[in-house]
């Protein structure tokens, strides 16, 4: 059993969002503030009825509602219109399964006849009289009247349900919500509970209670209680004593401290804590299980992240996993075909990539694929010297660095160009390739066959085969005196200057990048920077 689609309306930053999920692995990528975390939170909230570890009924507040929807509501009231209060809808569409027949129906926004559940936060008509008084003076209204709202969890069969009746058990792992060491420890204990059988939990609780009972048998404790008993009458008519709290049935959860190599979890580094949480969640046994992971790469070194991703790949089994990331390494290692490019209103997948491209990035996960995926526009270059020249040319023309204008200049290994262009084509991204002609225009055209006529992809090169690479091109478009001046050299022939430039590519590019002297950008690079 797994979630096939998620529909979210008016929840936090997600005004109207529809997302289709893979049955096993989903890697959610997107720019900051696009709603990735909100998506995970909404799924977990619907399945568990909790937010920030507390029941929704105690955490309901106006900021859960989409700001734009609230603004429209208030503007309409102040304009004298009878606007209904905004509502929140979160729908989880489940894979069709006989075990889910009781929650199958068409009572959903897409009118699909499938199993599913929906969380609705809406105005409660029982408060019509009070609400009429609330909106009597629209000028003083600043937000939604959550005091008049009701929370409802219903199946697509249009029946009321509770989180306990939903067969999919979620585990949300988000290090950013752990605000202190004690909370981190409790977080791990909560996951540990799920990995223990019922008998093991009972045995642990019994052992913990017996340990507390033995506390009173300690001689020093008995002596203290004897002295306290002498105060009877002067402080209270009852006998005063000390003991340990035995009132809570689950007190072991608050008294037990997880340890690694006999070191308390609170003293372990955050990276190790995150790794333990994720691994415990994946090890948790349940009939149906969903794991939601917020940025697994947090606080982890490259080697430790690699080990964690290997563990996730090996142990996730049939569980549905939804993971958000800002790491190209994570998405390449887990499989770029599982990537969901997420936005507040639309999203796209990379399932259309050829198996060769999927396998390429899986085997060589160091590529900055995420930079391409998230760029408003990308310029792909062949190496660090090309990157410096393009950066310098862009700033020279536009007065700002490319990234400030939403353009990412990415240095790509030679064999990876067409792999990157395949991604750009699938996602309809704008990408320019700046490349050397290497003295063979026909070979270059053959190399980029299939991409020469793409409207949003441009292959930029100079067709002068006498100037094969970047350094000869710089000398072609600038005379020797200009380049000598930029480099602080005094070469007397073009040949000697060119030999130096080709032997010191990065140093030369850096001089062009840093100079405030006038120089001419080669035409094919000028075309790429716009």
UniProtKB/TrEMBL annotation:
SUPFAM superfamilies: P-loop containing nucleoside triphosphate hydrolases. Residues 259-332 form the ATPase AAA-type core domain. This is Recombination protein F. Residues 1-49 form the Endonuclease GajA/Old nuclease/RecF-like AAA domain. It comes from Novosphingobium resinovorum. Residues 374-438 form the OLD protein-like TOPRIM domain. InterPro entries: AAA_GajA/Old/RecF-like, ATPase_AAA_core, Bact_Antivir_Def_Nuclease, P-loop_NTPase, TOPRIM_OLD. One of its GO terms (molecular function) is ATP binding.
